[in-house]
Amino acid sequence: MLLTLGFLCFFSFMAGLIDAAVGGGGLIQTPALFNFLPQYSAATLFGTNKMSSAVGTLSATRSYLQRVRLPWKLVIPAAITAFIMSFAGAATVNAIPKSVIRPLVLVLLVLMAMYTLWKKDFGKLHKPVTIGRREMAVGMAIGGAIGFYDGLFGPGTGSFLIFLFIRFFAFDFLHASAAAKVVNLTTNVAALAFFIPTGNVLFQYAIPMAGFNVLGAMTGSWVAMKKGAGFVRVLFLLLTTVLIGKLAWDMVQPWLHG
């Protein structure tokens, strides 16, 4: 058990580091849990992952908010909507087959990466729009849609949030990452509100992993703030490319084995 825990804590640290900067820590931590603890159900592994990542996300959020000012008039309604819809997504996780969702997400990620590459100044300048009723409504719609997606499926949640905060509210990558962390924290808590009461968290693994996730998150948020929006943009594009590759591989695997 100690060797397994050691490997999981290492992957948890790396997940926290990547997640704090651009999201996508689940790409590292979730496969690690499935590889090292194959004897447990998927729900239990997802619950353990959420427990660990939620604590890391809380730490990253705290680090960002000490250095970055956010328009709470926009972010709080988006986070509340995300919380409600994430719980709804988790509750309906078996209703929509992942084989239907995966191709759509793949197309969206490709379009998002192409748009970011095409617009060279995308996310480099921070000139946020004035937050009125329309902007609050858009923020709530984004929070609700991405929250439901995170509860239902998950991969790329942080990347989608960052992209949408830049596209609709003219944030730079650094402020968009900070806002995404706040919203993502609420979706993690909503998922835990579903997983903990149903007994789907392995606390003997989740608690040590959470500690290492926090260390990774502190490192990742420090690097992001030190290097600035341009560096985070590069990381964002790299992570999106990895996401596209992973989803495409997941889709072609059944054909290769068939």
TrEMBL record:
Give the keywords, sorted.
Cell membrane, Membrane, Transmembrane, Transmembrane helix, Transport
Record membrane topology: Multi-pass membrane protein
- Membrane-spanning parts: 74-93, 100-118, 138-166, 178-196, 202-224, 231-249
Q: Which InterPro entries match?
A: TM_pro_TauE-like (IPR002781), TSUP (IPR052017)
| Pfam family for this entry, one | TauE
Q: Where in the cell is it found?
A: Cell membrane
Q: Name one GO cellular component term.
A: plasma membrane
Q: Which domain of life does this protein belong to?
A: Bacteria
Q: Which family does it belong to?
A: Belongs to the 4-toluene sulfonate uptake permease (TSUP) (TC 2.A.102) family.
User: What PANTHER family does the record tag this protein with?
Assistant: MEMBRANE TRANSPORTER PROTEIN YFCA-RELATED (PTHR30269:SF0), TRANSMEMBRANE PROTEIN YFCA (PTHR30269)
Protein name (database record): Probable membrane transporter protein
Q: Which organism is it from?
A: Aquitalea magnusonii
Identify the taxonomic lineage of the organism of origin. Bacteria, Pseudomonadati, Pseudomonadota, Betaproteobacteria, Neisseriales
